[in-house]
Amino acid sequence: MTFREIFERFASRYLPGNQSDAALLRYQSLARAIEAKPDSPVRLDENCDHLAFVCCGATKLVAHASGGREQIVAFHFPDELVVVPARAEHAYTLSSVKGSELLVFDYQELLDLARNDPLVLRMLLDCSRKSLIRCRNKSLALGRKTAAERVASFLAGMAVRIGMPEDDCVFLDLPMSRRDIADSLGLTVETISRQITQLRSLDIVSTVGKSGVRIDDLRGLEARAGYLIASG
Amino acid sequence: MTFREIFERFASRYLPGNQSDAALLRYQSLARAIEAKPDSPVRLDENCDHLAFVCCGATKLVAHASGGREQIVAFHFPDELVVVPARAEHAYTLSSVKGSELLVFDYQELLDLARNDPLVLRMLLDCSRKSLIRCRNKSLALGRKTAAERVASFLAGMAVRIGMPEDDCVFLDLPMSRRDIADSLGLTVETISRQITQLRSLDIVSTVGKSGVRIDDLRGLEARAGYLIASG
DNA sequence: CGGCCTATTGATTAGCCTCAACCCACGTGG
DNA sequence: CCACGTGGGTTGAGGCTAATCAATAGGCCG
């Protein structure tokens, strides 16, 4: 994809429709397209925050702790936005999960340009609030849910975000490895594997190759997710 | 405190200084003061999001899972803002930790009023982004840190937020109970207790009564917090 | 001073991690 | 076309961390 196409896609989704061509160009001049190879960190200026638009592929925002431990704080799929904090201040890295094309802004520059544009500000606010809700839900899972519940919640969440409805079930083509899932759920690859095996033996999901998961019983999955609502 | 005083305090901290009296009054008309007793949920309309300004006391935002399990997703101290999602949609409750005085807005109404006020929008954006960073850090702790590291991180974080510097050390008067700390760190009260005992025996902290904690060795505390930066 | 609730301490258990082996799909080169 | 190597995924055995269960201690109220 050309830079032009990527920017158009971003603009049509996130910039208000009534922008003048001149205004669009100003936004465009702040943007930079980045192509990221599978499972490689996205190189960004360490001294400032960034806003990234995922055009295609999938990315993960990774938090680092001592001893090489990693926690994936969020995944991002096409047409989603991420706020990436400055590496210098907070130990986070944005990485691609599979090959991805991104559009990246210096967050502060973008904010300055949008200083008097309430529609863009509201868009950013909305994006930030959605991330916050997701992150809070993740905190609940990491703090209080069992391995079985975390995996069920994860799959149920993926079904909403990237699921392809088939007759009476939902098919997932998971872009991330078991290791990524483990790092996202605060577990190990072995535990993920065992839990998926468990779900398979209960006829709740079936797996197709390494990345394919068909959710045959979404109700059953949600019932195991530990939600307060909908499962008591 | 009177409603007037609470609102003034909110306005001076979060509304831009150049607002007309009429504009201030419009904001004021959306606000409602709530006094919350210790450890009791704040009663809010379940069908909409809210923005709460903590005037005094301390609050916690609690996420609920099945089986009565609770995860505290954030604490809030005087002069801080919280976005509380609609209970109807997401299973969250705002509760006071000790007696608190709050100023509460319907989030949507506030946003509508501020629709064309970039300064207020940026303030909200900023607040949302700070919450997001905190929540991401919490995810790292819950997903990948040991009990010892979580408690150390917690105390180090509290030192920044509510610590009172004394000669060569920091004193904390923790407003929350051990149970709250446990629910915040994804642990049990017993584990919290044991970890604090451990820190005491290492001469890193000393405790004064139930709520007092003096951090004698902040460096030592941070070294045990599992941070990537500053501790390798 | 006595009752109550929170915090602490101790003993045991359970869930997940660790370590190790194996399987399988895929790519490579003989 | 098959032997081989590689890397992710799965499965199994044993260990460790934090949970659970139970009892004691200690602050704070009347």
Description:
- The structure is a homodimer of 232-residue chains.
- The first copy, chain A, has 232 residues and is α+β, with helices and mostly antiparallel strands.
- Chain A has two domains: 3-142, Jelly Rolls (Sandwich); 146-223, Orthogonal Bundle (Arc Repressor Mutant, subunit A), CATH 1.10.10.
- The first copy, chain A, contains eight helices and nine strands.
- In chain A, strands 1, 2, 3, 4 and 5 form a five-stranded antiparallel beta sheet that branches. In chain A, strands 6-7-9-8 form a four-stranded antiparallel beta sheet.
- Chains A and B meet through strand 2, strand 3 and helix 4 of A and strand 2, strand 3 and helix 4 of B.
- Chain A binds a DNA duplex (30 and 30 nucleotides) through helix 7.
Quaternary arrangement of the chains shown?
Answer: homodimer
What is the helix tally of chain A?
Answer: 8
So, the CATH homologous superfamily of the largest domain in chain A?
A: Jelly Rolls
Give me the Rg of chain A, rounded: 19 Å
Number of strands of chain A: 9
User: Largest interface, counted with CB-CB under 8 A?
Assistant: A-B, 50 and 50 residues
Report the CATH C-level class of the largest domain in chain A: Mainly Beta
CATH fold naming of the largest domain in chain A: Jelly Rolls
Largest sheet of chain A: 5 strands, antiparallel
Shape of chain A: globular
Question: How are helices and strands ordered from N to C of chain A?
Answer: HHEEEEEHHHEEHHEEH
The proportion of strand residues of chain A reads 25-35%
Report the helical percentage of chain A: 40-55%
